[in-house]
Specification:
300 residues; 13% helix; 4 helices
Length: 300
């Protein structure tokens, strides 16, 4: 039990040993030393140190709750990483991982995980991360998600932007606590509306950066949405059913092919910002929109 409640002096000793190991790895000792920061005794920042290997000494810091390893050159994590049983926040973004390290499955208190901007081609391990609430897998090379992703029953925020996804697993509908979903810039030819409409707590949805010209009428079933991002696509028309999104506050439609919006949009009385820049909407249509939505800031 004493090992689980280290004294402050023991923690300091652990940091000093870790620093020594890190300095041996670092190519430019002076600049690296300046970048190593301790937010407090439970959080450690090691971002931007050009690390290629994380020393096994990291396992000594078994009290850590937060660890920032962003912007290094890591491809693996040491086996001792599994000793960080209290870790709840982990940032591995901007590294060189091709898969999520297996040792992460041992972190039973993990709530936030970012592995964005890596070289991930498969993420089968994520179905074991059942405690995670926020997961960022954006800017990778993912073509598919694991079939049993529905095991992530506590997931609230999922960022999959700028991958190569063409579909979502059927099991996706089991993630009923999901509030924020980012699918921007993937390769969907048809969006998985039957899965999206099953998300009963979804408040933010990002579907921009894709090539579809029409939006399904099923968009009207997502009545919990407060943020809808559809910019940077090929949209030519919006369905009347968009008016069902009574809770919507932010609607972004920039850089599409829209010449007008349906009059039914006037029913979106909670709408506060509407982005339409980069669309061929003439002055007459702009005037109509301002009349229909007097309390909304519209960006043409």
């Amino acid at each position: 039990m004493a090992r689980d409640i280290p004294t402050l002096q023991a923690k300091i000793d652990h940091y000093l040993q870790l620093y020594e190991a890190l300095y041996k790895e670092a190519k430019h000792k002076k600049s690296e030393k300046e970048k190593i920061q301790v937010l407090n005794e439970d959080h450690l920042i090691l971002h931007g140190n050009a690390l290629t290997i994380l020393p096994a000494a990291i396992g000594w810091l078994y009290h850590l709750k937060g660890l920032n390893l962003r912007d290094n050159q890591l491809k693996t994590l040491p086996d001792t990483f599994k000793q960080l049983r209290q870790l709840s926040w982990l940032d591995l973004s901007l590294n060189s991982f091709k898969e999520i390290p297996e040792v992460i499955a041992s972190l039973k208190n993990l709530i936030h995980l970012s592995v964005s901007d890596n070289q991930l081609e498969q993420v089968d391990l994520i179905s074991q991360l059942t405690t995670v609430k926020e997961l960022n897998l954006s800017d990778n090379q993912l073509c598919m998600l694991p079939a049993n992703i529905g095991k992530l029953i506590h997931l609230e925020k999922l960022d999959l932007a700028r991958n190569r996804l063409t579909s979502l697993p059927v099991d996706f509908h089991k993630i009923q606590k999901l509030e924020h979903l980012n699918l921007y810039g993937n390769a969907f030819e048809q969006l998985p509306w039957s899965l999206l409409t099953s998300m009963k707590q979804l408040s933010s949805l990002y579907l921009g950066g894709m090539a579809f010209e029409q939006l399904s009428t099923q968009i009207g079933s997502l009545t919990t949405l407060k943020v809808l991002f559809l910019s940077d696509g090929q949209l030519k028309v919006l369905p009347q059913e968009i008016s069902n999104l009574k809770a919507l506050r932010f609607l972004w439609l920039d850089n599409n092919q829209l010449t007008h919006l349906p009059e039914a949009i006037c029913h979106l009385q909670c709408l506060r910002e509407l982005g339409l820049a980069g669309n061929p909407i003439d002055i007459k249509e702009q005037k109509k929109l301002k009349e229909w939505l007097p309390d909304c800031k519209i960006y043409f």
